[in-house]
Amino acid sequence: TRGASQYISDEGSRTCVPFCDANNEATVCDEGYYCDLDENLCAPLSDRPCTPDEYAPNGSAESAANITLPSIGSTLMLEDLTLCDTTPDWFQFDMETGEELTVTMSSASNITGNYEVLAADGSTSLAQGALGALGGELLRFTANRDDSYYLKVTRTGVTTGFYNLTLAVAQGELCEDSWENAATNDTLQTASP
């Protein structure tokens, strides 16, 4: 029952959990929990129903959500993203020559997935990372030129749910590539031998 301390008894587990409603849902539940407004109690994030996130629909390169990367030395957190079906999430962003992007993925819903940086053509894979049962693998990519790039996130297991992305930008080191500067080998037809 709800008392002066704003806790209610969860009959299933016989423990007291914080009472929550639309007025306090953002502040009362501990990390790793959300406010189940149907039950007015804090429940584990892993139990939260999967619903489209604020960037949907972004299931292709053509409908990719535009994001602005943080400045060098800063981090951007994209939270409460969802993969509710087999459709991947796509994000588009710009990078300048020499910027290094680091991406990690995490999930309280225990989803597994792959994430990769793609070139402006939307198909050439430039760097990959993965989220498995033991956690996320680091993706690191340094831009060789000023351009638009994509980040594609794909669910690999059967579990649907929520995930977070952490994107950090640093000053990277460039490799000198005379073919790249000449831009003469950027297509299949003009590939250098």
What does this structure look like?
The protein is mainly β. The chain has one helix at about 180; strands at about 5-10, 15-20, 35, 40-45, 65, 75-85, 90-95, 100-105, 115-120, 125-130, 135, 140, 145-155, 160-170. The protein has one helix and 14 strands; from the N terminus they run ββββββββββββββα. A hairpin with a 4-residue loop joins β1 and β2 (about 15-20).
Keywords, please?
14 strands, 193 residues, disordered N terminus, six-stranded mixed beta sheet, four-stranded antiparallel beta sheet
Structural class: mainly beta
Cα-atom radius of gyration: 21 Å
Question: How many strands appear in the DSSP assignment?
Answer: 14
Strand order in the largest sheet:
5-7-13-9-10-11
Strand residue percentage: 35-45%
DSSP helix fraction: under 10%
Order of helices and strands: EEEEEEEEEEEEEEH
Mean of all residue-level pLDDT scores: 85
Low-confidence stretches: 1-5
How many angstroms does the end-to-end distance come to?
Answer: 74 Å
Number of helices: 1
Largest sheet: 6 strands, mixed
Task: Based on Cα principal axes, name the global outline.
Answer: elongated
